[in-house]
């Protein structure tokens, strides 16, 4: 069943956003995106105007070091549909996305990046499917311009691997660009974990979903913030947050190594006692020690990843802190105080402002 707010035809006053809360929120995490935010707002206005829905765009400045925050301040002075939330430092894309979802007011919320690789022009198609009753509408990439073969291959491998080790359906070739109903957003905000993988958390919630397809363009400006190291960490977070398969693999590896060790020992004894073949002791011993040592270190590292995540969650620290918020008509640029109380998981208040 579609959300009731989606079926109600908006008045012209609502379409201008003068008296009613927004029906549609667009959440945009950004880090050093000063070249893109103005163009993004312009393209959002062009794409959303035919919908005649009151809308807002919530930028989350994730500790930018360029002029992104100043550009957002200027936008709020002239654009009533623009708000921003500035975090105290760079908490990471997943934390910034969570902050945006907590501050979004719309009955439906669109997540997208600021680099214009996610085209605003397909948002109306997402809204159409939301009106048909889908709670999650994700954008699936049919092509990825500006990415090399290795990046595309590793991305494909990651999604196929996640499909095998998780107990839910993680859509392939899908990033964070998606629309979520208010019910789906509220469910997401009830998930208190600190090591966050947003697209996995949304898929895990199991809401009725649909897809639209698009061709992903190259960045409009700036450079990507996802290095190979950060992509590797994100993939590791995804695997350890949604599956115990790596731990099962450790158990299997232990059994295999034990079996190989017994087989090797039996072979040595048989050759020595029955065939009279002299066995060089040092080479066999050194090879076995290094092999077993490497396997043990790998196993301890995998177990340590899970223990580390338990440690982080038991600290109960907020996911982010807000340094400043801004909206149309508010030019004081006041820095808000940060509450240090633990998050209220029942209400979904995971960060503080």
What does this entry look like structurally?
- With 353 residues, the chain is an alpha/beta fold.
- It folds into two domains: 4-228 and 318-327, Spore Coat Polysaccharide Biosynthesis Protein SpsA, Chain A, CATH 3.90.550.10; 245-315.
- 47% of the residues lie in helices and 16% in strands.
- It has helices at 4-7, 12-15, 37-48, 68-78, 93-103, 123-131, 149-165, 182-189, 198-205, 228-242, 245-275, 281-315, and strands at 24-30, 55-61, 82-87, 108-111, 136-144, 174-181, 209-216, 322-327.
- An eight-stranded mixed β-sheet has the order 7-5-6-4-1-2-3-8, with helices on both faces.
- Helix 3 links the parallel strand 1 and strand 2 (55-61).
- Helix 11 (245-275) runs antiparallel to helix 12.
- It is elongated, with a radius of gyration of 25 Å.
- The two termini are 34 Å apart.
- The relative contact order is 0.14.
Keywords:
single chain; 353 residues; alpha/beta; Spore Coat Polysaccharide Biosynthesis Protein SpsA, Chain A; 8-stranded mixed β-sheet; 12 helices; 8 strands; 16% strand; elongated; disordered N terminus
Compact description:
This protein is α/β, with parallel strands linked by helices and about 350 residues long.
Identify the strand order in the major beta sheet.
Answer: 7-5-6-4-1-2-3-8
Tell me the series of helices and strands, N- to C-terminal. Answer: HHEHEHEHEHEHEHHEHHHE
**Uncertain ranges:** 1-18, 332-349
Major sheet characteristics: 8 strands, mixed
CATH H level of the largest domain: which superfamily?
Spore Coat Polysaccharide Biosynthesis Protein SpsA, Chain A
CATH topology category name of the largest domain:
Spore Coat Polysaccharide Biosynthesis Protein SpsA, Chain A
Total E-strand runs: 8
């Amino acid at each position: 069943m579609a959300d009731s707010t989606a079926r109600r035809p908006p008045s012209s006053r609502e379409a201008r956003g003068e008296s009613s809360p927004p029906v549609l929120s667009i959440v945009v995490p950004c880090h050093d995106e000063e070249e893109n935010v103005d163009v993004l707002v312009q393209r959002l206005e062009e794409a959303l105007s035919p919908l005649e829905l009151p809308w807002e765009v919530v930028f989350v400045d994730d500790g930018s070091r360029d002029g992104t925050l100043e550009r957002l301040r200027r936008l709020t002075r002239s654009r009533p549909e623009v708000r921003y939330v500035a975090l105290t430092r760079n908490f990471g894309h997943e934390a910034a996305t969570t902050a945006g979802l907590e501050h979004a007011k719309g009955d439906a919320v669109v997540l997208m990046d600021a680099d214009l690789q996610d085209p605003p022009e397909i948002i109306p198609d997402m809204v159409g499917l939301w009106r048909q009753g889908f709670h999650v509408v994700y954008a699936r990439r049919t092509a990825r311009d500006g990415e090399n073969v290795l990046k595309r291959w590793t991305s494909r491998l990651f999604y196929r691997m996640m499909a095998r080790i998780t107990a839910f359906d993680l859509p392939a070739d899908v990033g964070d660009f998606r629309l979520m109903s208010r019910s789906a957003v509220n469910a997401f905000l009830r998930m208190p974990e600190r090591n966050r993988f947003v697209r996995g958390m949304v898929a895990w919630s199991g809401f009725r979903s649909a897809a639209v397809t698009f061709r992903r363009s190259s960045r409009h400006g700036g450079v990507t913030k996802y290095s190979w190291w950060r992509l590797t960490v994100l993939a590791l977070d995804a695997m350890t947050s949604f599956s115990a398969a790596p731990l099962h693999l450790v158990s299997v590896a232990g059994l295999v190594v034990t079996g190989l060790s017994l087989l090797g020992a039996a072979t040595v004894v048989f050759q020595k006692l029955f065939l009279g073949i002299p066995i060089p002791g040092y080479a066999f011993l050194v090879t076995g020690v290094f092999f077993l040592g490497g396997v043990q270190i790998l196993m301890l590292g995998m177990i340590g990843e899970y223990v580390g995540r338990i440690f982080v969650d038991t600290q109960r620290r907020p996911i982010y802190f807000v340094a400043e918020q801004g909206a149309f008509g508010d030019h004081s640029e006041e820095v808000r105080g940060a509450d240090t109380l633990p998050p209220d998981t029942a209400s979904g208040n995971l960060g503080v402002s």
